[in-house]
């Protein structure tokens, strides 16, 4: 029985490996515009063509695999293997360039595919072809490897796999059509952002990369100073719009396109976002003024709004000169916002706002139950994208467990960072940025960082993108199969 699923996983893997190989070749499209970088073509041709060849051979070897619906947790195994393969293959262009070892390359590509944006690259001295490659990984990681493949193939056996990657946003009855619609909406926003940036004076190459990074909530920039380097309020406003679009549930985008505006305003995560904004934004503005970081209320508001949005959307762009000089109170609020994260079924990371809402409602129901007559039955509802559903005890319990596990990982990662001489606040800031796939940095993760620091952040980014439980489900499934094989 297990062998049947193993063969099927390898059959599916062959298709994904071919796709991963094609991804390596896409940056070559930059060469007509930057012909002086032709010497770097081999960095992408070699891993791209080798991956396509390996995928083709695997496809021939397992073409007779029986197509069945994958049993529980085998879908998780496949998704984890796909993501690991994408990261592994994508490390080779960086290593072939000669400036990066495997640890650094793995960190950079995990950051890209997980849409984190932490980086060990000096973008000021990096060829355009490599900068575009980073942005392509943000795009692919943002919409999801499975979603992109689903655009091409039938969804007959793909729904479980699609959900495992973190998508429950089935916009249409046919999953393949849903995937294509999501990709179309996503692409239209990128085009809008690119054009808007160009109109505001941003170079074309910068505009394309920044639009990709903002919408994918990835945060890779082509400037070392990030968005701050453009010194443009207009560019900051467009970036805020794109970041908000990226962290918004894809189903809400469809509702807005269909002019069902009430779905947006009644949506639980919209209400939560507005409440969090009303609570924390004034505190951020006050802290900047009180600490003397700025003396202008207008400048304090400008910095606070941008950093609020980049934190809660888990994008990681920066609109101030130096994050390390921000007041402690401001930095702590950013840590909280990074933990909250974006909407479910969006490119945003973090715990996700919906889960925070579920737990808060569960706490309220528990308190209410102790006050009211215990014989009274109370029902709690939650509204998402125009649908009001009952909140069950099981969902509250499982969500609470997820958040607890998330926080344990957060504290363990932060502890490891403190072991290397970093203070607690900086360690918490840097690791939550990795785990919540944000990309804001106070300098702990850099080109010269110890390997343990980079691998800790890499694991955090990977777990954060695949929402933790998928990775552990896959690991347990593989361990169980190995033990089963040993007992035969």
Summed up:
With 488 residues, the chain is mainly alpha-helical. 65% of the residues lie in helices and 2% in strands.
Task: Name the strands of the widest sheet in spatial order.
Answer: 1-2
Percent of sequence in beta strands = under 5%
Alpha-carbon distance between the termini? 13 Å
Structural class: mainly alpha
Low-confidence stretches: 154-159, 169-173
What is the mean pLDDT? 88
What gross morphology would you assign?
globular
User: What would you report as the Rg, rounded to the nearest angstrom?
Assistant: 22 Å
Number of helical regions: 20
Number of strand segments: 2
One letter per element, helices H and strands E, the order comes to HHHHHHHHHHHHHHHHEEHHHH
How would you describe this structure to a colleague?
- This protein is mostly helical and 488 residues long.
- It contains 20 helices and two strands.
- It has helices at 2-25, 41-61, 74-97, 102-113, 128-143, 145-150, 159-164, 175-199, 204-215, 233-246, 250-257, 261-266, 268-291, 297-312, 328-340, 353-371, 393-418, 424-435, 451-465, 469-487, and strands spanning 381-384, 387-390.
- Strands 1-2 form a two-stranded antiparallel ribbon.
- The longest helix has 26 residues, at 393-418.
- The protein is globular, with a radius of gyration of 22 Å.
- The two termini are 13 Å apart.
- 47% of the residues are buried.
- Mean pLDDT is 88; it is low at 154-159 and 169-173.
């Amino acid at each position: 029985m297990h062998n049947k699923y193993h063969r099927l996983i390898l059959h599916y893997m062959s298709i994904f490996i071919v796709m991963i190989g094609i991804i390596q070749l896409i940056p070559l499209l930059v060469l007509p515009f930057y012909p002086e970088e032709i010497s770097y073509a081999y960095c992408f041709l070699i891993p791209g063509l080798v991956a396509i060849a390996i995928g083709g051979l695997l496809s021939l070897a397992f073409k007779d695999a029986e197509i069945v619906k994958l049993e529980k947790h085998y879908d998780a195994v496949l998704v984890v293997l796909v993501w690991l393969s994408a990261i592994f293959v994508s490390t080779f262009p960086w290593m072939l360039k000669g400036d990066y070892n495997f640890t650094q390359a793995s960190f950079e590509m995990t950051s890209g595919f997980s849409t984190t944006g932490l980086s060990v690259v000096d973008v000021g001295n990096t060829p355009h072809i490599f900068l575009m490659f980073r942005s392509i990984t943000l795009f692919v990681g943002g919409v999801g490897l499975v979603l992109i493949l689903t655009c091409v193939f039938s969804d007959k056996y793909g729904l479980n796999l699609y959900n495992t990657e973190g998508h429950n946003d089935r916009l249409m009855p046919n999953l393949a059509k849903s995937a294509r619609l999501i990709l179309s909406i996503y692409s239209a926003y990128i085009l809008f952002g690119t054009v808007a940036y160009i109109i505001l004076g941003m170079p074309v190459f910068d505009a394309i990369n920044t639009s990709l990074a903002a919408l994918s909530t990835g945060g890779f920039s082509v400037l070392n100073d990030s968005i701050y380097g453009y010194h443009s309020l207009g560019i900051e406003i467009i970036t805020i719009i794109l970041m908000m679009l990226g962290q918004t549930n894809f189903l809400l985008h469809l509702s807005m396109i269909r002019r069902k505006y009430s779905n947006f305003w009644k949506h639980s995560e919209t209400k939560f976002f507005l409440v969090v904004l009303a609570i924390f934004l004034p505190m951020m503005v006050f802290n900047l003024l009180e600490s003397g970081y700025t003396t202008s209320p207008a400048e304090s508001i400008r910095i606070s709004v941008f950093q609020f949005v980049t934190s809660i959307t888990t994008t990681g762009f920066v609109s101030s000169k130096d994050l390390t000089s921000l007041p402690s109170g401001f930095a702590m609020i950013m840590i909280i916002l990074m933990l909250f994260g974006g909407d479910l079924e969006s490119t945003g990371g973090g715990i996700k706002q919906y889960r925070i809402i579920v737990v808060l409602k569960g706490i309220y129901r528990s308190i209410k139950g102790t006050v009211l007559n215990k014989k009274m039955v109370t029902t709690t509802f939650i509204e998402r994208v125009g649908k009001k559903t009952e909140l069950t005890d099981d969902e509250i319990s499982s969500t609470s467990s997820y958040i607890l596990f998330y926080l344990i990982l957060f504290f363990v990662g932060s502890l490891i960072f403190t072991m290397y001489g970093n203070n607690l606040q900086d360690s918490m800031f840097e690791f939550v940025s990795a785990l919540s796939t944000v990309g804001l940095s106070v300098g702990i993760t850099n080109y010269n960082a110890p390997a343990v620091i980079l691998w800790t952040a890499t694991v955090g980014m990977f777990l954060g993108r695949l929402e933790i439980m998928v990775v552990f489900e896959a690991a347990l499934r593989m361990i169980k199969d190995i033990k089963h094989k040993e007992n035969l």
